[in-house]
Design brief:
single chain, alpha/beta, five-stranded mixed β-sheet, elongated, binds S-adenosyl-L-homocysteine
Length: 260
């Protein structure tokens, strides 16, 4: 297994740099790699590169960047606005939504949100790990939490909101998104919003549903848990309006072997 790592430095063939502490620790102490060992790197900007460990010293690990493996490509511009959940549920949500290609996380405090604290650093670490695993070339952004009213007051109306509405006369999500897809003035920027375990307050659903840039959708006859609802909505979004309709990429040539 060749480790695939997110780094913050600029990447270009021939460049050498000292790995950040997290990466150096992982390579040296967890993976027990030695000088010369291959790694794969991405930074969210420059694409994905082959690389190898040039030097392993007591205090640092030096990495040398090799050839470009894949050029940078973006991800569909879809945010997930979610009400903070308990630790395990929020960790699960961030990991899985990153795998499903979400562009940004926007925590939103609603009336019935039970959790008051959110550790953004931990969310970011979970997102990095999921992005490394899932061959993404980007990291999702993690925005500062906002109250629902502040979110709406500052919302860019060009970013259409898909509201997961557990009550009311919303169209099923597949139908609603297919209609949005065939709209000639289709938006390029999207967000999915899901309520907390306690659900949206009636007044919140009414307020959101009235906004011209909001499309309420239903996720079927069962009431899903907040994390399940967000992930189900994101999966359907990707297959209709996102990149889920694209063919999977051809397998890459393993490092150090020439293509056949
Ligand atoms: N306690 C609430 C349910 C909350 S479920 C109740 O009993 O009504 C948490 C969130 O998941 C909801 O606010 C909604 O955004 C989303 N959700 C769950 N099931 C859904 C469904 N069938 N359709 C649309 N959204 C759903």
């Amino acid at each position: 297994m060749i480790p695939r790592l997110y780094v913050t430095v600029d990447l270009a063939p021939g460049r050498q740099f000292a790995a950040e502490e997290r990466t150096a620790h992982y390579l040296k102490n967890v993976m027990r790699r030695e000088a010369g060992a291959p790694v794969i790197l991405f930074n969210g900007r420059d694409g994905e590169f082959e690389a190898h460990l040039a030097e392993i010293a007591k205090k640092h690990v030096t990495i040398e960047v090799g050839a470009l493996r894949r050029p940078q490509v973006g991800t569909p511009d879809v945010w997930l606005c979610f009400a903070p959940l308990k630790k395990d549920a929020v960790d699960f949500l961030v990991e899985k939504a990153t795998e499903l290609g979400v562009a940004a996380f926007q925590p939103v405090f609603t009336k019935h949100t039970a959790t008051t604290r959110l550790n953004l650093e931990r969310l970011s670490a979970n997102a990095i790990e999921a992005a490394e695993q899932t061959e993404r070339l980007t990291l999702p952004a993690i925005h500062e939490p906002l109250s629902l009213s502040d979110l709406i007051a500052n919302w860019d109306p060009a970013r259409r909101i898909i509201l997961c509405a557990e009550a009311g006369p919303a169209l099923p999500i597949g139908e609603a998104l297919s209609a949005l897809k065939s709209d000639v003035n289709k938006s390029n920027a999207w967000a999915i919003i899901c309520g907390p375990e306690g659900g949206f307050a009636r007044s919140e659903l009414d307020l959101l549903s009235k906004l011209p840039f909001v499309t309420p959708v239903g996720l079927g006859p069962r009431i899903l848990r907040a994390d399940t609802a967000a992930l189900a909505a994101l999966a359907v979004f990707q297959s209709i309006l996102g990149d889920g309709a694209e063919r999977p990429p051809a397998p890459l040539t393993p490092i150090g072997q020439s293509p056949e």
